[in-house]
């Protein structure tokens, strides 16, 4: 039992450390965008890609503008669910990529929530002009990469039984885990 607590502690601290690093990178890049891009966008590849400052008061693609409290509450609910699942993932190397996916989701969600709470908007700055893609940030990259990896894992890596044992809620799932 003590060994199990140590592994939970290890994976918990590891997750917190990696999230802290990723959130710091996100916040640092947003700070640079605020300082250097507000007045002058930087064109990296003409007509293709640039760094340009945008204050996004909505969600992805600018939807639901001005719904700050809704986004904060939804983010807290999603983070709670991810933390719960993170602690239920079996402590074996087979699940390391799944844990990393959850760390990416958490880091992206917290990075954007920090902006919403601090500024009442999210700082975005990556812009693919060639395809007129909505402007986004590093935290958005974390969430997008995590979503892609999660789909890949669900389709090609983990068997249905493995996922059921993680996501199964209630006493039945807890009994199996403790056996």
What does this structure look like?
It is a single chain. With 179 residues, the protein is mainly alpha-helical. The protein has one domain. Helices cover 65% and strands 11% of the residues. The chain is built from six helices and three strands. Strand 1 and strand 2 form a beta hairpin. The radius of gyration is 19 Å and the shape is elongated. The termini are close together. The C terminus is likely disordered.
In short:
One of its GO terms (biological process) is proteolysis. This protein is mostly helical. 65% of the residues lie in helices and 11% in strands.
Give the key terms.
single chain, 179 residues, mainly alpha, 65% helix, protease, aspartic-type endopeptidase activity, Peptidase_A8, transmembrane, membrane
Count up the helices: 6
Q: How large, in whole angstroms, is the Cα Rg?
A: 19 Å
Number of domains: 1
Overall strand count: 3
How would the global form be characterised? elongated
Strand-helix topology:
Blueprint: H1 2-36, E1 42-45, E2 49-56, H2 68-88, H3 96-119, E3 122-128, H4 138-157, H5 160-167, H6 171-178
Helix pairs in contact: 1-3, 2-3, 3-4
């Amino acid at each position: 039992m003590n060994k199990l607590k140590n592994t939970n502690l290890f994976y918990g601290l590891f997750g917190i450390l990696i999230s802290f690093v990723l959130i710091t990178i996100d916040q640092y890049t947003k700070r640079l965008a605020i300082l250097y891009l507000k007045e002058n966008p930087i064109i990296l590849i003409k007509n293709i890609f640039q760094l340009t400052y945008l204050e996004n008061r909505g969600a992805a693609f600018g939807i639901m503008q001005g719904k700050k409290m809704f986004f904060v509450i939804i983010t807290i609910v999603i983070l709670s669910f991810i933390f719960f699942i993170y602690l239920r993932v079996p402590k074996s190397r087979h699940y390391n990529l799944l844990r990393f996916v959850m760390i990416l989701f958490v880091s992206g969600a917290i990075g954007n929530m920090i902006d919403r709470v601090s500024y009442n908007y999210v700082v975005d700055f990556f812009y693919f002009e060639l395809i007129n893609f909505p402007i986004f940030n590093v935290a958005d990259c974390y969430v997008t990469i995590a979503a892609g990896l999660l789909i890949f894992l669900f389709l090609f890596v983990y068997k249905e039984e493995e996922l059921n044992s993680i996501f199964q809620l209630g006493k039945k799932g807890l009994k199996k885990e403790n056996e």
